[in-house]
Amino acid sequence: MRILKYIFLLILLALFATTVFIATQKGNFDVTRSAIIKSPKSTIFNYVNDYRNWETFGSWKKEDPEMTFNYSKNTVGKGGSYSWTGNDGEGDMKTLGVVENKSIQQKMNFNGANCDVFWTFKDTLGGTKVSWRAKGVMNFGMKIYSAFNGGMDHIIGSMYEKSLINLDKTLVYELNTYNIQVNGMVKKMGSIYLKQTITSKIVNVPRNLRVLIPRMVNFFKKNDLKMNGKPFVIYHNYNAVKGLTTLSVCVPMKEEVFTSQGSDITSGKFSSFDAVKTTLTGDYSHNQEAWKKAIDYIKKNNLNQNFDLPNVEIYTKNNEEVANPSKWVTEIYIPIRPKSAVVYKPQPATTSQSTSENTVSTGSSSKKETEQLNTSPDENLKR
Predict the structure, then answer these.
(1) Per the CB 3.0–4.6 Å rule, which of 11, 117, 214, 362 could disulfide with 106?
(2) How far apart are CA 302 and CA 297, in angstroms?
(3) d(Cα 354, Cα 107) in Å, to the nearest integer?
């Protein structure tokens, strides 16, 4: 019995010594990992700046397959946030500030411990140097976890290293795997919708859509409105010289609804029209190439674009539904004027007194008909 008491006392002393040792260790940590990623700086910045993309490159999902993620209505830029629950606990992250294409500052909370997170993006040979830093103070629970798992530099550092490798692979594959198909002439059905109109730099359109589309969808949910299809965008004008475009982010509905006076969300509608349809499967960054192919198709087939009607983009599959950019689907509809039909009026029958007159009359008629048949609908339209 006396031996057992000694053993028990030794265990208690060991536990006490371990506790004192852990408690007296420095609680500060500052961990940074960097990598050269073979993608443009703006592309990487925009991808990291949206929390919905983090599942595609974060190493924590592989280490904890049961981990679940919850996204707020805003996941992009300043104020964007998300949270998670896993086997090791739960946490959340919020973006405090961004400097476009240069840096992102975030605040992370994990099991009650807070830390500051910083991203920087710098052009360099071979791509973009991306640095990911975490800085904070450990509570007692985190100190114990750190002590038994190799320290915070190892825990955070190895996770960041794996995630940066995944980010490089993800961007190379996901952003460069795409397909553009010009589907040809279709009838685009009319729509009633609510819209929010903005003027934006053309280069900022993808980023602005990541913010505005979820905001419009949330407006429908908040006001108990039913969507009647996928969100879409109407382009009112597109000035490539100045690099500006005015567009409306729209959500379709079955019945027309009027918002309060002064609201930046208003109602709209358009009727059915003939259009050239083009489908882009892949990241939205290939959108301009899809538009170019659509315009080339219109010119090649001598079609007449109808500038009185809106150009429409429908986001059949977007980042709200699937995380992988290579699986996003965007449909482009460019209005086309119907070709004018050529009406051939029958020639009145002529009663001739002789065969020679009949021959002359018939020859004149045949020549006129031949001229009409050789005139294309487009040429008639130009006249």
Answers:
(1) 117
(2) 9
(3) 101
Six token digits for residue 248 = 């409306």
| Helix and strand counts by DSSP (H, E) for the chain | 9, 15
Domain enclosing residue 137, as ranges: 24-176
Segment 109-149, tens digit of pLDDT: 988 788 999 999 999 988 899 999 999 887 666 766 666 66
Residues 90-98: contacts with CB under 8 Å, at least 24 apart: 93/51, 93/117, 95/49, 98/49
Kindly report the CATH number assigned to the domain that includes residue 168. Answer: 3.30.530.20
When computed from its CA atoms, the radius of gyration of the chain, rounded to whole angstroms, is 32
Mean pLDDT of all residues in 71-78: 90
Beta-carbon contacts of 161 under 8 Å, excluding residues fewer than 6 positions away, are 33, 35
Mean per-residue pLDDT of the chain: 82
- pLDDT over 80 at 21, yes or no: no
Q: What angle do CA 53, 57, 63 make, to 5 degrees?
A: 125
Distance separating alpha carbons of residues 61 and 76, to the nearest angstrom: 21
Q: What would the pLDDT profile of 231-278 be if each residue is shown by its tens digit?
A: 999 999 888 889 899 999 999 998 888 888 888 899 999 999 999 999
- What lies within 8 Å, CB to CB, of 130 at 6+ separation is 34, 35, 36, 37, 44, 48, 119, 120, 121, 164, 167
Sheet with 81-86: strands ordered across: 28-37, 127-137, 113-124, 103-110, 89-99, 81-86, 68-71
| Residue 13 falls inside a structural domain | no
Is 348 a residue whose pLDDT tops 80?
no
The secondary structure element, H or E, covering residue 18 is helix 2-23
> Rounded to an integer, what distance in angstroms lies between the CA atom of residue 165 and that of residue 340?
58
What is the residue type of 183? Answer: N
- The reply to whether 161 falls in a domain is yes
Same domain flag for 200 and 136: no
Q: Indicate the SS3 state at residue 254.
A: coil
Which residue, 133, 136, 132, 207, is CA-closest to 166? Answer: 132
3-state percent helix, strand, coil for the chain, nearest multiple of 5:
35, 35, 30
For the purposes of burial, counting CB atoms within 10 Å of the CB of 239, is it exposed (0-12), middle (13-18) or buried (19 or more)?
exposed
